[in-house]
Design a protein that fits this description.
- The complex is a heterodimer.
- Chain A is an all-alpha fold.
- Helices cover 74% and strands 0% of the residues of chain A.
- The longest helix of chain A is centred in the last third of the chain and has 34 residues.
- Helix content of chain B is 25%, strand content 28%.
- Chain B is built from six helices and eleven strands.
- Chain B has a nine-stranded mixed sheet, with helices on both faces. In chain B, strands 2-3 form a two-stranded antiparallel ribbon.
- In chain B, a hairpin with a 2-residue loop joins strand 7 and strand 8.
- In chain B, 39% of the residues are buried.
- The chains are: A mainly alpha, B alpha/beta.
- Chain B: One of its GO terms (molecular function) is electron transfer activity.
- Chain B: Heterodimer composed of ETFA and ETFB. Identified in a complex that contains ETFA, ETFB and ETFRF1. Interacts with ACADM. Heterodimer of an alpha and a beta subunit.
- Chain B: This is Electron transfer flavoprotein subunit beta.
Chain lengths: 92, 237
């Protein structure tokens, strides 16, 4: 995470955007089946790996991938819950 | 018509937690145990928010009865799109004994106070599995009820509803105001994402006491014993 003081205005926008998507994913990852800690460590590593990326197209693609992961997690959590409710309350 | 919907949301032990009975058999262990919104209540909130997004209703008010922590459950509803919350503060022994009859009385009082057009609830809570609150609330208000709803559509001042019943689906049409209880297949609840949780912090939650609503929460029921189900024996062929 690049400190705000050393960012240009454009970079600052990107920095805060990245931070928001990192925090959103961190929040979503708390209930990850292999553990919130496991998820958090891998999330941090992934964001750190791509810290130096400057190309706006690449950044857009990375953010899109982050959003994809977020949707996948939501689907995972929903399916687990739905299947549990279906199993407990419905005879099919 | 006010265009206002009350949604009841209950804070329950999370569905994925392994329940443990207290050693003295008076109840289950809740201290330090993960709690979350009852899954059927999530479906009710989602339906209310969808109705608002379709501009069929104007305001979604989330209600929860319980101790201070019930406000977290209301916050989740606000993050999903409810406009404001009402926390009916019930704690200690009163909370331990709080059941569908008392909650129905509270919801009925709130429905009158807030001039609600619709009350949306989950069909049952996954902790007590009573499946009574919706029905009792409708009876207390003398409103029609659409329980186990798997499809809801508003048509003028009436509601078309599909109910999941044994052996199939029942199509009914009821007047408003009405009480609807949500079944599993009604919709897919949205996840309360972090940005939405942050935005929801600006939304208001008002705390009231049952006495303010003229409701006596004394229970007529006494829990005698809570025990684990018998261990399953291995089958024999």
């Amino acid at each position: 995470h690049i400190p705000a003081s050393s960012c240009s205005n454009r970079q600052q926008q990107v920095c805060s955007g990245n931070r928001i998507s990192e925090l959103t994913l961190l929040y979503l990852g708390r209930e990850y089946p292999k553990g919130g800690d496991y998820f958090r460590d891998r999330l941090r590593a992934a964001f750190a790996r791509n810290k130096a990326v400057e190309d706006p197209e690449q950044i857009k693609a990375l953010i899109a991938r982050g959003e994809y992961v977020a949707r996948e997690l939501e689907a995972l959590y929903y399916l687990r819950k739905y299947r549990a409710m279906k199993k407990r309350y419905y005879e099919d | 018509m006010s265009g206002r919907v009350l949604v009841g949301v209950k804070r329950v032990i999370d569905y994925a937690v392994k329940i443990r009975v207290k050693p003295d058999n008076t109840g289950v262990v809740t201290d330090g145990v993960k709690h979350s919104m009852n899954p059927f209540c999530e479906i009710a909130v989602e339906e209310a928010v969808k109705l608002k997004e379709k501009k069929l209703i104007k305001e979604v008010v989330a209600v929860s009865c319980g101790p201070q922590q019930s406000q977290e459950t209301i916050r989740t509803a606000l993050a999903m799109g409810a406009d404001r919350g009402i926390h009916v503060d019930v704690s200690g022994k009163d909370y331990e004994n709080l059941g569908p009859l008392q909650v129905s009385k509270i919801l009925a009082a709130l429905a009158k106070q807030e001039d609600a057009q619709l009350i949306l609830l989950g069909k049952q809570a996954i902790d007590d599995d009573c499946n009574q609150t919706g029905q009792m609330t409708a009876a207390l208000l003398d409103w029609p009820q659409g329980t186990f709803a798997s499809e809801v559509s508003l048509e003028g001042d009436k509601i078309n509803l599909v109910r999941e019943i044994d052996g199939g689906l029942e199509h009914i049409k009821i007047n408003t105001p009405a009480v609807i209880t949500a079944d599993l297949r009604l919709n897919t609840p949205r996840y309360a994402t972090l940005p939405n949780i942050m935005k929801a912090k600006k939304k208001k939650i008002v705390t009231v006491k049952p006495a303010d609503l003229g409701v006596d929460v004394t229970s007529r029921l006494e829990v005698l014993k809570v025990e684990e189900p018998p261990q399953r024996q291995a089958g024999r062929v």
